[in-house]
Fold each of these.
Amino acid sequence: MFLIYAGLIFTGALMHNEFDADISRTALLNGISIKTLGNTANLFLSILVSLACFTTAVGIVTGTADFMKFKFGDSQKAYTITAIIGCVLGVVMGQFDVHYIIAVAVPALMFIYPITIILILLNVLPEKYASPLVFKAVITTTILFSIPDFLGSIGYGDAISSVKELIPLSAFSMGWVLPALVVFVMANLLRK
């Protein structure tokens, strides 16, 4: 998945002048694939999008089901019920137009992705750099600095524009990165 997304980012950076600035995400992805792969682009694009969606869906469903299993005392029944509900909701959501799905998903992802990225990075680090204190401090900071991006994605961008101007990288919806890094360093220094 990393190679696919990195390739898309790289290709998008190389071809940024070949498309209008107001092109939709779907049309941009389709246009890039046709320009790079020719007539077989739709087949490859369909396979890649299917794999990306499938792996994401499996991760979300199993992660949520596993969390519910833990919350209900290691109950296999809770796991199964949560997995079934997650799959049914996924199938129902899949019946909508791509633009609608993106409109519904973007606000949630603007809040969830930064936290997920930080959790993954902290779990990869050796325990001496990612103590429980560091985890709590960095996750709390990430949550707080993800709120402006979340609010901007649900239509309150104008109301919080003065706050977003104060946060570095918030113009790129990455206002959580530098604060999380600073708190990570400070929490590790305080712990020592």
Amino acid sequence: MAEVIALVDYGAGNLHSVHNALKAAGAQGVKVTHNPDLVRRADRVVRPGVGAFGACAAGLRNVTGMIDALEERVLLGGAPFLGICVGMQLLATRGLEHFETPGLDWIPGEVRLIGPTDLSVKVPHMGWNDVALTSHARDHALLDEGEAYFLHSYHFHAREGRHVLAMTDHGGGLVAAVARDNIVGVQFHPEKSQAYGLGLLSRFLEWKP
């Protein structure tokens, strides 16, 4: 029987593209859902996200029971979890986009405006860029070095370096991926990153943390 992959719909994700990319990577049981009960039964959970941190956080909290279901299935149940773009940023303790907004605090840190040291570098960070692994990713099953597609103006500043799996450079170092236990978040868009992104999603579908 195919595993159930819950693709969380909270009104803030590029769901169609992520759904298609997961299927292209080999997933058969992808369910786009805003149903907390389905999330509780899922074998794997993916949370995309596009837009402002505050709006995405509000959208997630407005789905009755969804945060409780995510905590039960991911934090307590150990289901493999992948957060994409703002879906990754919501793992932080707080976001500072326009105003301070609480995150989920699954990975301690905060989401800040990109402040490049080279003033000729434009924000948002948009387009293809290298993903460079940190020493903490040496034994991680999901990430590989390569080139991925980014689109963001705010970045994840992790409180502890051990949670940072990969970096990229855009007028200074920016976190490209974070992780803790069965949780991984990527700032880039695997669904737009062609072979590199499909490789990541394929490994996620096989990942046994």
